[in-house]
Amino acid sequence: MARSGGDALKIQENVFRGHRERVFDGNWPPLEHGGERESVKADRFGGDVSWISQIPQCVVFTPSIDEFKDPLAYISSISPLASKYGICKIIPPILPSVPAGRVLMKEKSGFKFSTRVQPMSLSDWDSDNNKVTFLTSAQRYTFSEFEKMANKFHSRRFSTAAVQPPLFVEAEFWKEMLAGNSDHIQYASDVDGSAFSSSPADPLASSNWNLKIVSSLPKSILRLLETIIPGVTEPMLYIGMLFSMFAWHVEDHYLYSINYHHCGAPKTWYGVPGEAAQRFESVVKEEIYAEKLLSEHGQGAAYDLLIGKTTMFPPNILVKHGVPVYKAVQAPGEYVLTFPRSYHAGFSHGFNCGEAVNFAMADWFPFGAAACRRYSLLNRMPLLPHEELLWKEAQGLDASDNEKKQNAESLMQMPVKSAFVQLMAFQHKVRWLLKERGAAIYTSLAAPINIPCSLCKHMCYVSFLTCKCFPEPTCLNHEMRKCQCGKERQVFLHRDIKKMDAVALRFQTVVSPLPVVDDGMVFDSALLEEDFLDGEEYSGYVPFDNIDAPDLESPIIFGSSVVTTNSDADADAKKSVDTCVNKAPVSAKSFDFFVLI
């Protein structure tokens, strides 16, 4: 069980399973800094760490060779149970034959990386000067250099190179954090690359569980992306040492994540189920971030701070407030999954190397819509073109339906159909209202692009709007009753808009309404009441009825966006757009959000 230099070059066997559930007996070895230390955070978080043995374990799965063949099918089968924990662990029936160290030192010649320096203390989060920042180190390491440094630190800290029991290391980690020492550790996170071998003889690397191919598998929604997003569609490496930590966070766009532990010491993970995310955020706002800090940064400050991935605090704070938390101790050769909108955090027990990538399946779309809504309210540019992904997946399902391929698998795709109907019903209804208020509606025949809304940065794919009030396009998610542009206001539609409406109409006959994932983000009057779209103005509305929208072809360029115009109708559109460019924008605060995004 001893960890010596060169550990990463060995085939990793799971030597931790035998004692994972051992209960720590409360006998501590002498502290490196001498004597008992009073926790500077004791008044706030409590100095007792006995709670660590009370955090329940997450569910663990051991698929058979046959079940292991299709990762996303297997994950779909366990998701109803596993998602209730926020995280789960999967112990595969096969292991790699080529060690990660050999891949990174032999197959990847010249591989070096920088690290982030992490303070071993908890922040008071009461001012900008007292926020945690993980600074990038100027030093660059080879894989073996970092391993030697990390092992030396481990030996100095515990007076031995031997692997320590997980509960003991967990208790030591939180004692260090609560003590608030000036110590710093290093963590190489978000390192481009993969430690899966390129050798066809490696059984795990040759399987579909190789993280380099997960996002492009047939059932993965991210296969539809036309661009590569490092860390999302391509895996990244995470190379840690004793007490390297990953702070509380959710994945971008509330995506799934899959994490493989290549080699080294275990990691402890904490996970909160996605259904408890809103309660998690409430506890953080009330118990972790000081009111002064939040008030200084305005609405959405807490969410912005969490996005920064530097908020670390003991999970017993959550438990005290009724937020469910589950734990996993991940050893080499094991996968950990995080589910949509599951907050998670954790730390390393010593030198190790892990790898992670995101993916999405059909059931992700409601969460993705909620994430886009949050980014819009925070005025953050999204990474993923949500509307485009939804339309492309819906097109494929519609083609399958026409070929009468109805089976159990197609039933699993119902969230896609429901989400698409919800999107298009909203778009059609707002489009109709804008037409009733005098807006001109056009269908753009140019190649579709994603245009960021100038008010909220929402990616407009199905439609966007221009008017005198703003020099750049806006999405249809804003309530425009205060706009006085009238007929000079224009809506530009995707060239496949008629097909989109037709597909949504077909889907509408077979799906049930999809519950909206509520993220609890209601800013001061930023959202209208849910019954707004059912008001008197819609008395003559017919769902998915044809709305006349002349075709436009030749290009018009304004600001950073392009629309297309041609013919007499196009000339009117160009004149209106030119007028928009020359008008000064009014305050974005003058416009509210519709309920749905």
UniProtKB/TrEMBL annotation:
* Matches recorded under SUPFAM superfamilies: Clavaminate synthase-like
Which superkingdom heads the taxonomic lineage of this protein's source? Eukaryota
Q: Which organism is it from?
A: Selaginella moellendorffii (Spikemoss)
Q: What is the lineage of its organism?
A: Eukaryota, Viridiplantae, Streptophyta, Embryophyta, Tracheophyta
Q: Which SMART domains does the record match to this protein?
A: JmjC, JmjN
Q: What is this protein called?
A: JmjC domain-containing protein
Q: Tell me which UniProt keywords the record has, alphabetically.
A: Iron, Metal-binding
What is one GO biological process annotated to this record? regulation of gene expression
Write down any Gene Ontology CC term.
chromatin
Q: Which GO terms describe its molecular function?
A: histone demethylase activity; histone H3 demethylase activity; metal ion binding
Do you know which InterPro entries this protein is assigned to? JmjC_dom, JmjN, Znf_C5HC2
Q: Where is the JmjN domain?
A: 58-99
List the residue ranges forming a coiled coil, or say none: none
Give start and end of each JmjC domain. Answer: 206-376
Task: Note whether Iron occurs among the keywords.
Answer: yes
A Pfam family cross-referenced in the UniProt record is JmjC
